[in-house]
Specification:
Elements lengths: L2 H4 L3 H64 L4 H29 L8 E4 H10 L10 E6 L5 E4 L1 H18 L6 E10 L3 E8 L19 E4 L5 E4 L3 H10 L3 E7 L3 E9 L10
């Protein structure tokens, strides 16, 4: 075998180096695009909740303005002034709390370390992030979550997953003047927790089920006022986040009866396999 055959030429070495560089650039671009798609999916879910947040903020701000206007016109009424200040303080604190919840949901820390996260507390926080109490829309919320049940997950990812599923459940019942939103959690074996998020909405058409976790996949939801909205936002992101936490997500649905999303997550840190 000749040395020329066994040894690379300067030209082939240069070509190999160039190919390596191009692969590195493509890999970097792929990571960037993946991050951009993930952010877009997150913003899509947040955008669905924006109208509700704006409505609730308006409900908190309007009384403050009204009391302030009346108090300014009757500036000799000390008791009215005090009442206006009490309303302003209470509503200001409520606005601050809502803003903190929204910021906490939209700010995504990079590479947050997994830890034990209490499921009930995480679900309650995600519910608060909806901005509007579902009971005001005729939706009964029922939790069957043991107080001592925790899962091994990134806390922010878990809250984002639960927020997306709760938001979709609420949207699914928008056309039915209410319903029931149920979250059940239980241990499954020694190493898993099962979480079911169920609604009594209109369900998902069978032909949509295979595509429901695709990026930006949506299903049409007609509200009571005749307006058309699209449910299913954030489900692709939820699936990605669940899998990053070492879990799985599935969906079952019956048209006219409702939908259940079932998540399996690890109870604790996965055991490190011993080297062979």
């Amino acid at each position: 075998m000749s040395d020329d055959y066994r040894s690379s030429t300067p030209e082939s070495s240069a070509l190999f180096t160039e190919v390596q560089q191009q692969f590195a650039l493509l890999e970097a671009r792929f990571r960037q695009l993946k991050a951009e798609v993930r952010q877009a999916m997150q913003l899509s879910a947040l955008g669905t909740a924006t109208a509700v947040w704006a409505h609730e903020l308006n409900n908190l701000i309007t009384p403050q303005i009204s009391y302030a206007q009346v108090a300014l016109r009757q500036d000799t009424d000390v008791e009215l002034m005090r009442k206006a200040l009490r309303v302003a303080l209470a509503n200001g604190e409520a606005i601050k709390a809502m803003s903190e919840r929204i910021l906490g949901l939209s700010a995504q820390p990079a590479g947050a370390a997994p830890q034990h996260v209490g499921l009930r507390a995480a679900t309650e926080e995600a519910l608060e992030c909806l901005g509007r109490d579902p009971s005001r829309d005729g939706i009964d919320v029922v939790f069957h979550i043991p107080d001592d049940l925790s899962v091994w997950a990134d806390p922010h990812s878990l809250k984002q997953i639960l927020f997306n599923l709760l938001l979709n459940a609420r949207e699914a019942m928008a056309s039915k003047h209410g319903g029931r939103l149920t979250v059940r959690a239980r241990r499954q074996g020694d190493d898993r927790a099962m979480i079911d998020v169920s609604d009594t909405g209109g369900g998902i058409a069978p032909d949509r089920i295979p595509h429901i976790f695709e990026p930006f996949a949506t299903s049409k939801v007609t509200k009571a006022n005749g307006k058309v909205r699209f449910g299913g936002v954030g489900l692709s992101l939820s699936k990605q986040l669940v899998e990053e936490c070492g879990g799985t997500i599935q969906v079952s649905s019956r048209v006219g009866e409702g939908t259940t999303f079932s998540i399996a997550l690890p109870l604790g840190e996965p055991a490190v396999k011993a080297a062979v």
